[in-house]
């Protein structure tokens, strides 16, 4: 069910920080038209850290409504409190999401046993399909392959988003767990290599601005066509880098603003992209063949 280019979609906001429902509808139609294979709502890129519980659940429900069953929806429901993660995961299931993405608990730095029990407890509490999410660069905890191997035996844990950026790690996960769970790239710069090694897709930031290209590249990589995948990925390589010049989702939200798809709204403590990084983002968008809208490029 979950494969290919899965966009970690931004949460569009008005200038006052409130959720921009009109822009959300526009983004959803953009992704469906351009071939995105699944939508991941309210993950890191969706500013989950600054949405309160009610907003978080409301955004998931709204995405489900807007998509209307046309492509799968994966809801970000991770938290560093196991009970809160259970509550969010139940909320996503009740809203009609197809699966949940659960980041490793951040800041409190659990042990490997703590990680295993955290995920097992959520999986036992809520039967919806669940995807693990390991991104040690943001959470200060690394879920090791031994722990993932143990979790792969739980029936409704169906995949892992590996955002370590390590191809060796990705290959190890595929070798150890590939028959029991899917392995997805979580780092756009290395996603093609991971899919060519047997990964089932990518949960992508770049797909926010280049959905058709990411879909086609992922399709080629997942069928093992290295030549076609490399040709499709080459124009995106600068974009993969530029969208992380400041903390995600700062650059990608500004890029979408430059494209005329959303307003500049973003919530503190994140701020609008610094002036010094705007030209590199513009250049990367141009290299990928992405057009700017109106005079947004002059801001």
TrEMBL record:
<dbReference type="GO" id="GO:0019877">
    <property type="term" value="P:diaminopimelate biosynthetic process"/>
</dbReference>
<dbReference type="GO" id="GO:0005829">
    <property type="term" value="C:cytosol"/>
</dbReference>
<comment type="similarity">
    <text>Belongs to the DapA family.</text>
</comment>
<feature type="site" description="L-lysine inhibitor binding">
    <location>
        <position position="106"/>
    </location>
</feature>
<comment type="subunit">
    <text>Homotetramer; dimer of dimers.</text>
</comment>
<comment type="function">
    <text>Catalyzes the condensation of (S)-aspartate-beta-semialdehyde [(S)-ASA] and pyruvate to 4-hydroxy-tetrahydrodipicolinate (HTPA).</text>
</comment>
<keyword id="KW-0704">Schiff base</keyword>
<keyword id="KW-0028">Amino-acid biosynthesis</keyword>
<comment type="pathway">
    <text>Amino-acid biosynthesis; L-lysine biosynthesis via DAP pathway; (S)-tetrahydrodipicolinate from L-aspartate: step 3/4.</text>
</comment>
<protein>
    <recommendedName>
        <fullName>4-hydroxy-tetrahydrodipicolinate synthase</fullName>
        <ecNumber>4.3.3.7</ecNumber>
    </recommendedName>
</protein>
<feature type="site" description="Part of a proton relay during catalysis">
    <location>
        <position position="107"/>
    </location>
</feature>
<keyword id="KW-0220">Diaminopimelate biosynthesis</keyword>
<dbReference type="InterPro" id="IPR020624">
    <property type="entry name" value="Schiff_base-form_aldolases_CS"/>
</dbReference>
<feature type="binding site">
    <location>
        <position position="203"/>
    </location>
    <ligand>
        <name>pyruvate</name>
    </ligand>
</feature>
<feature type="site" description="L-lysine inhibitor binding; via carbonyl oxygen">
    <location>
        <position position="49"/>
    </location>
</feature>
<feature type="active site" description="Schiff-base intermediate with substrate">
    <location>
        <position position="161"/>
    </location>
</feature>
<dbReference type="GO" id="GO:0009089">
    <property type="term" value="P:lysine biosynthetic process via diaminopimelate"/>
</dbReference>
<keyword id="KW-0963">Cytoplasm</keyword>
<feature type="site" description="L-lysine inhibitor binding">
    <location>
        <position position="80"/>
    </location>
</feature>
<dbReference type="GO" id="GO:0008840">
    <property type="term" value="F:4-hydroxy-tetrahydrodipicolinate synthase activity"/>
</dbReference>
<keyword id="KW-0457">Lysine biosynthesis</keyword>
<dbReference type="Pfam" id="PF00701">
    <property type="entry name" value="DHDPS"/>
</dbReference>
<feature type="site" description="L-lysine inhibitor binding">
    <location>
        <position position="84"/>
    </location>
</feature>
<dbReference type="InterPro" id="IPR013785">
    <property type="entry name" value="Aldolase_TIM"/>
</dbReference>
<feature type="site" description="Part of a proton relay during catalysis">
    <location>
        <position position="44"/>
    </location>
</feature>
<dbReference type="InterPro" id="IPR002220">
    <property type="entry name" value="DapA-like"/>
</dbReference>
<dbReference type="InterPro" id="IPR005263">
    <property type="entry name" value="DapA"/>
</dbReference>
<keyword id="KW-0456">Lyase</keyword>
<feature type="active site" description="Proton donor/acceptor">
    <location>
        <position position="133"/>
    </location>
</feature>
<feature type="binding site">
    <location>
        <position position="45"/>
    </location>
    <ligand>
        <name>pyruvate</name>
    </ligand>
</feature>
<dbReference type="InterPro" id="IPR020625">
    <property type="entry name" value="Schiff_base-form_aldolases_AS"/>
</dbReference>
